[in-house]
Amino acid sequence: MAASAAASSRRGFLRLVVAAAVLAAFGLGAARAAGSSVDRAPLSVASLFPGPACPTTAEHEPSAAASARMKIVHQHGPCPGRALSTGNYVVTVGLGTPASKYTVVFDTGSDTTWVQCRPCVVKCYKQKEPLFDPAKSSTYANVSCSDPACDDLDSNGCTGGHCLYAVQYGDGSYTVGFFAQDTLTIAHDAIKGFRFGCGEKNSGLFGKTAGLMGLGRGKTSLTVQAYDKYGGAFAYCLPASSTGTGYLDFGPGSAGNNARLTPMLTDKGQTFYYVGLTGIRVGGQQVPVAESVFSTAGTLVDSGTVITRLPATAYLALSKAFAKAMSASGYKTAPAYSILDTCYDFTGLSDVSLPTVSLVFQGGTCLDVDVSGIVYAISQAQVCLAFASNGDDESVAIIGNTQQKTYGVLYDLGKKTVGFAPGSC
Predict the structure, then answer these.
(1) 267 and 182 part of one domain
(2) With DSSP H G I counted as helix, E B as strand and the rest as coil, what are the percentages for the chain, rounded to 5?
(3) Is 340 found in the same domain as 242?
(4) Domains of the chain: total
(5) Rounded Cα distance, 172 and 143, in Å
(6) What is the 3-state secondary structure (H, E, C) of 231-294?
(7) One of 107, 154, 182, 249 is an active-site residue; which one?
(8) Residue 59, domain member (yes or no)
(9) What's the first-to-final CA gap in the chain, in angstroms?
(10) Lateral strand order in the sheet of 357-361
(11) What is the per-residue DSSP string for 162-182?
(12) Where does the record place the catalytic residues (predicted)?
């Protein structure tokens, strides 16, 4: 959900309703019957749609070094995320003294954390929880225009000696208000003097959430403000199932010890987490795309973008390889849906077998996309490859949250690494 370079795919509000995959012999049998030699992953078609219940999944156990853990809720299904009508993942934080709880989207593609505030004299969208009321917090204070923190904002202003902030997102969503400070509570940790936006004019695709938690690399982000406490490290795991929960951990070692690491490229701006994507595999086979195609504009990892966007040349090669493998198994094609143009009709099928998809990064780190992140279902008659083209080779590539599911995704500013720990939730 980056506020600049990733404009073309900010906050895809595509409805991702993927539940836990049920391993089935039918899918594997279909692949073998077709004589295919590509690596495949079985998928229950029913798992592509919301389940009837919302049980709590087994909780992630952080390492001893992890300092704070919060529960992540899937954006769809009978879990709370659906009631909030947002296309992204959400967490619950405390704000103020005494602390009041607020549900916010968490976003690695932007910096400034904000919530809607009373009296909201200009414009606020409808949210599930009551608006944050600064008058009811004994620790709230506006940031003054003379405070150096005001200059840390990408866009600021001043009125009556108070600092103003403004954030415009790529999809046209925005928030404007007073830059303030108060006590932020995450899990059981209280972060005093945390600077955030007290939104008085807000509009866009935020659903019924109270606002947004910015986890980018910029100075106003939670990551940087709490650097002394957590060492600039955090990790999250996004659940594959609409009936499951994931986690957001802060602190060194939060993703565990099995994360596959790749360098964080820090020469492409202050907010985004850039990595070196070097190749793609479909069914275990390397897709013929030159590394230069990925390096032209770079690749960033973003929790606030839903569908992964690739340079046009890379996407064309991926979709062709995927379509070839699906055709070999005799799956019926279906019409395109929005930006998704490689689609199939699974009507009458209980289980299918999909060619695996892997993303290869600098240093050889490989992200084997979970089967729940390979396709996106509009209906049983229209299930599409969950990747899209940027339309050219000059726009930044974005690894979206669909393809990150079930991995512990680690960001470590101190070590300048991004990591992927398989099977984390």
Answers:
(1) no
(2) 15, 35, 50
(3) no
(4) 2
(5) 26
(6) CCEEEEECCCCCCCEEEEEECCCCCCCCCEEEECECCCCCCCEEECEEEEEECCEECCCCHHHH
(7) 107
(8) no
(9) 23
(10) 285-286, 277-282, 357-361, 366-368
(11) EEEEEEE-TTS-EEEEEEEEE
(12) 107, 302
| 45 and 170 co-located in one domain | no
Contacts of 222 (CB under 8 A, 6+ apart): 113, 184, 186, 191, 194, 213, 214, 215
- Letter for the amino acid at 195? R
Q: CB within 8 A of 198, min separation 6: which ones?
A: 114, 115, 117, 132, 134, 142, 177, 178, 179, 180
Residue 182: active-site member? no
237 is a domain residue: yes
Residue with tokens 């001893």, as numbered in its chain = 64
Record the pTM.
0.85
If residue 107 lies in a helix (H) or strand (E), which one and from where to where? strand 100-107
Let me know: does 104 contact 212? Beta carbons within 8 Å.
yes
What are the phi and psi torsion angles at 346 (to 5°)?
A: -100, 20
Q: Which domain holds residue 310?
A: 7-52+257-421
Domain boundary among 213, 234, 250: 250
| The domain boundary residue, chosen from 227, 250, 273 | 250
Q: Kindly tell me the sign of the dihedral angle through the C-alpha atoms of 21, 299, 363, 415.
A: negative
H/E element holding 405?
none
pLDDT digits (tens, 9 = 90+) for 78-108: 454 444 445 578 899 999 999 999 999 999 9
Query: Catalytic pick from 249, 302, 351, 412?
Result: 302
Catalytic (active site) residue 267: no
Handedness of CA 10, 14, 17, 22 (dihedral sign): negative
- Of 47-51, 193-197, 282-286, 311-315, least confident by mean pLDDT is 47-51
Asked if residue 61 belongs to a domain, the reply is: no
Backbone angle region of 280, left / alpha / beta, with phi > 0 → left and psi within -120 to 50 → alpha: beta
Strand partners, 332: 345
CA contacts within 13 A on the Cβ side of 404 = 29
Q: Are 207 and 1 in contact (CB under 8 A)?
A: no
Q: Looking at the structure, do residues 41 and 153 belong to the same domain, yes or no?
A: no
Cα(325)–Cα(342) distance, integer angstroms? 12
In DSSP terms, which residues pair with 44 in a beta bridge? 351
Query: 115 and 178 in contact (C-beta within 8 Å)?
Result: no
Residue 345 forms part of a structural domain = yes
